[in-house]
Amino acid sequence: MTASLAGKPRKVVPKILAVIHADGCTGCEACLEICPVDCIFKVAGEDHPRLQAFCDIDLDRCIGCQHCRQICPRDAIEMVPTPEIAGHVAAKGGPPRYVDETWDALVDQARRNAEEYLAKKHR
Fold it and tell me: Under 8 Å CB-to-CB from 80, ≥6 apart: which residues?
């Protein structure tokens, strides 16, 4: 699903996670460059890969720091409470082929993060 990312996985699931709404993202990479944990990656467009690119987030690495949301010039990034992340990931949009190919992995990753967060919160 995602490109190979450098660095170590995070130790604790944060209470908020970032979601990039693909329809608002221009692929400018401002978020990609500021992310302290390299959890953002670029996705090529379907018909014109260089012109229709957008960014997406590896939720297993996101630490909820909000740097990406603060720097996004298009306000395409939303910080979402972790227990609600699956619904937001399901509604974020994107090129149909990308959504079809990654749907299960994206939603499963979101659900897994929400479940892990809730399990640790209730200990």
Answer: 16, 17, 18, 19, 88
**CATH 3.30.450.20 holds for 16-121:** no
Instruction: Give residue-wise pLDDT tens across range 3-43.
Output: 444 456 688 999 999 999 988 999 999 999 999 999 999 98
Sign of CA dihedral 2, 76, 44, 41: negative
Contacts of 91 (CB under 8 A, 6+ apart): none
Domain coordinates in residue numbering, the chain:
16-121
Strand ranges in the chain using DSSP code E only, listed in sequence order: 16-20, 40-43, 54-57, 77-81
In sequence order, what are the residues at sequence separation of 6 or more whose Cβ sits closer than 8 angstroms to the Cβ of residue 96? Answer: 46
